[in-house]
Design brief:
4 helices, Alpha-Beta Plaits, alpha+beta, single chain, four-stranded antiparallel beta sheet, two-stranded antiparallel sheet, 6 strands
Length: 179
């Protein structure tokens, strides 16, 4: 980014690839809760028992897939303290459906920053905001980590490996780095 300071105080450099615009491609995303607290449920006997917030998060992923035409959440898993997603983005296939994000009063500077970071960051911000708003409306204490981790999936083998990792994440919870 051209400005190294946020509000004249600090600026943490983006971890995004500066050679990629994030408006197209397939991505492996990990979004963690603040302090890795177990907000979404608990795992026992290789099954997750979701909290009210976990159930909402699952339904919101389904909603996003039905709402937008320019991206698809291909695979996902909700863990007690993080969410893994494989998201395919094609900004050339711009959604003809109404984008509710533009109807929400949002800080203009943050909206501009989000657009500069590509469609992927915009999608993640919609997702994180909706889950946070649900928690707030339902008096559920909740917080995300401020950022998310992404990895560009570059070929079919990486896609299959990532998809399998996501599908087996609950059964491998005891070995998970976030456990």
């Amino acid at each position: 980014m051209k400005n190294d300071l946020f509000k004249g105080i600090y600026r943490i450099p983006s971890s995004r690839a500066d050679w990629h615009n994030y408006n197209h491609g397939c991505y492996f995303i990990t979004i963690c809760t603040d302090k890795r607290e177990h907000f979404f449920g608990e795992i026992s006997n290789e099954k997750i028992s979701m909290s009210k917030l976990g159930i909402y998060t699952e339904s919101y992923i389904d909603y996003l897939n039905s709402k937008y035409d320019d991206f698809k959440i291909i695979s996902h898993v909700i863990m007690p303290n993080h969410v893994h997603l494989i998201i395919s983005v094609d900004a050339h296939n711009k959604s003809k459906k109404q984008d509710t994000y533009n109807n929400i009063e949002v800080n203009e500077m943050m909206r501009d920053i989000s657009k500069q970071c590509g469609r992927l960051s915009y999608i993640i911000s919609i997702f994180k905001r909706s889950v946070s708003n649900f928690a707030k409306k339902n008096n559920i204490y909740f917080a995300w980590q401020t950022r998310f981790h992404d990895r560009i999936i570059r070929n079919y083998n990486e896609f299959i490996e990532t998809h399998n990792y996501i599908q087996n994440n609950i059964s491998n919870w005891k070995e998970d780095e976030f456990h």
